[in-house]
């Protein structure tokens, strides 16, 4: 029996979600136009005809998925390049900042009112900073393309009747709004799949890599100001997590398209 919403066998006035193996705890009221009577015994297992917009929603998700999937591959290169340039920048920036702060503290202790002359900024540091900012902007574009696909996929899932924690709009906002970005993205990806679907595990793995990249990158930069080699190791671990995030993002896209094609009865 395929996963879908069916009249609740215990309450014909409500719908209950069948995950393909068992009845779940998710229920919903019958639509106003839907009959309240329980269908014949042979009916369960047959998906209700999808709404007229379902095929268009699926095509929209596929188009967004192709762009987002390609962006994830580009993102692999961008993550490696960005983190490598960040380490190169820190290699020159950290000693310069230490020397500058030392001069400032020494001048303060000596009671001098005039600001001390700071050491000259290392050559090439501004160029490295410029390239790093460009790579950061490119990674933002990768995230935007992924979020656009998530919105389209969440819209189809919502219209197909899958249980959703957040609206499609709030799901996408969770990728960019501080604080809620620590859990909204996972809930949004999880809800693209029916309860009990094995693809939800891929969503968890994606979110684990997402958080690991965010945390290790931030912590690694902080450690680099105290001990550059140790910071570089932590940043490198974050890079591995970032690459995994991009590859798992492609897997989520593929699995979502397969699940949603089945939901709307399309190959």
Describe this structure in words.
- This protein is mostly helical and 267 residues long.
- It has one domain (61-263).
- Helices cover 63% and strands 7% of the residues.
- It has 6 helices and 3 strands.
- It has helices spanning 54-110, 125-159, 168-173, 184-190, 199-224, 228-263; strands at 4-8, 11-18, 23-29.
- Strands 1-2-3 form a 3-stranded antiparallel sheet, with no helix packed on it.
- Strand 1 (4-8) and strand 2 (11-18) form a beta hairpin.
- The two termini are 17 Å apart.
- Mean pLDDT is 84; it is low at 34-52.
Task: Give a brief rundown of this model.
The chain has 267 residues and is mostly helical. Helices cover 63% and strands 7% of the residues. A three-stranded antiparallel beta sheet has the order 1-2-3, with no helix packed on it.
Topology (elements, then pairings):
Layout: E1 4-8, E2 11-18, E3 23-29, H1 54-110, H2 125-159, H3 168-173, H4 184-190, H5 199-224, H6 228-263
Antiparallel strand pairs: 1-2, 2-3
Helix pairs in contact: 1-2, 1-6, 2-6, 4-5, 5-6
Shape summary: elongated
Total strands: the figure is 3
Unreliably modeled segments = 34-52
Order of helices and strands: EEEHHHHHH
Cα gyration radius (Å): 25 Å
Helix content: 55-70%
